[in-house]
Design brief:
- There is one protein chain.
- The protein is mainly alpha-helical.
- The longest helix is centred in the first third of the chain and has 22 residues.
Length: about 200
């Protein structure tokens, strides 16, 4: 008891207050807790703001007329099938490599490709179009990594898969899929990643 009294007396004499110290630590803790408690809607709104910023970057590289053409090409993708879709994505990649919509089209192309080519295209999308975003807030770089992580894990390339997963979690902690589900949650419930 004597030691506690001595410590308390020294703190008071030195100007330290146990109550003041607790209050000083609390704002940082509160900020961290607030960050953790962001609602799904707040996260989706934040992703959509990032998407608008990314789309605005296209104006640095392409004229208004080119951006209109990019949009037309991108939307034509939906009315085409097979090789015609492929041609749209390749045209966008060649003519407008830095466009946001090009990244989206290239990820669609990767998803629709046979497995061997799919892995190559996913790596290309990660490298060349990782900052692109869909209108719903889906990040091309995150979703491409997600698909590649799953494929690598299926191919028993656990080390490479884990490295890519760590990268995805670091770069895109709140990434979502097209249904608005968090990629981290989808990985957590995926039987490939659940420890027995």
């Amino acid at each position: 008891m004597k030691n506690i009294s001595t410590v308390f007396l020294l703190m008071v004499l030195c100007g330290a207050s146990p109550v003041a110290q607790a209050v000083e630590v609390q704002p940082d803790k509160m900020a961290q807790e607030a960050e953790k408690k962001k609602t799904k809607q707040e996260i989706l709104d934040e992703l959509k703001r990032k998407m608008k910023t990314r789309v605005a970057e296209d104006a640095r590289y392409y004229s208004k007329e080119e951006r209109i053409e990019i949009e037309k090409l991108y939307h034509s993708w939906q009315s085409k099938r097979g090789k015609e879709q492929q041609a749209v994505a390749i045209t966008m990649q060649r003519r407008f490599p830095k466009a946001n919509r090009t990244g989206c089209a290239m990820l669609y192309l990767a998803q629709d490709s046979p497995r061997g080519r799919q892995m190559t295209l996913l790596r290309q999308v990660i490298r060349d179009n990782g900052t692109c975003m869909y209108g719903n807030g889906v990040q091309v770089g995150a979703l491409a990594r997600y698909y590649l992580v799953i494929m690598l894990k299926q191919d028993n390339k656990g080390e490479e898969s884990q490295k890519l997963l760590d990268e995805m979690n670091e770069l895109y902690p709140n990434a979502i899929d097209h249904q608005g589900e968090f990629l981290a949650d989808l990985i957590a419930i995926n039987p490939l990643f659940v420890e027995p």
